[in-house]
Specification:
The N and C termini lie far apart (115 Å). This protein has a domain of 58 residues. It has 103 residues and is an all-alpha fold.
C-alpha cells in the first residue's frame, strides 16, 4: 500500500514538473519574434546609413574621396586581396606631396 502511494505521489510530482507546451502557439510566437527582430535590424541599418550619409555631407570633397578609398581598401583586405588592385597601382596618379609655387 505504501509503495502505491509513493509511486502515485512520484508520478503526480513528475507530471507537475513537466511543462505543458502548445506547439502551435510556440510556432506563432517564434515567427512573431523573428519578424520583430528583422524589423529592428532593418531599422538599425537604415539609421546607420542615414548617419553615415549625414557625416559625409559635412566633409570636403577631398575627404569624402579619401574615406571612400579607404573603405574600398578595407573590403579588399577582408577578402584577402591587396588593398589596391594591380590596375590602380599601375595607372592611378601617385599620391605625393603637392609642390608649392615659388612666387
Amino acid at each position: 500500500m505504501m509503495r502505491k502511494i509513493i509511486a502515485l505521489l512520484g508520478l503526480f510530482t513528475f507530471l507537475l514538473a513537466v511543462p505543458q507546451t502548445s506547439f502551435a502557439q510556440d510556432e506563432r510566437e517564434t515567427e512573431a519574434r523573428a519578424e520583430l527582430d528583422n524589423k529592428k535590424q532593418k531599422s538599425e541599418e537604415e539609421i546607420r546609413k542615414l548617419m553615415t550619409k549625414r557625416h559625409l555631407a559635412g566633409q570636403s570633397k577631398e575627404t569624402r574621396k579619401r574615406i571612400k578609398r579607404s573603405l574600398r581598401e578595407a573590403e579588399r583586405r577582408k577578402k584577402g586581396k591587396s588593398p589596391q588592385s594591380w590596375y590602380d597601382g599601375m595607372f592611378r596618379r601617385k599620391q605625393g606631396k603637392k609642390r608649392k609655387k615659388n612666387s
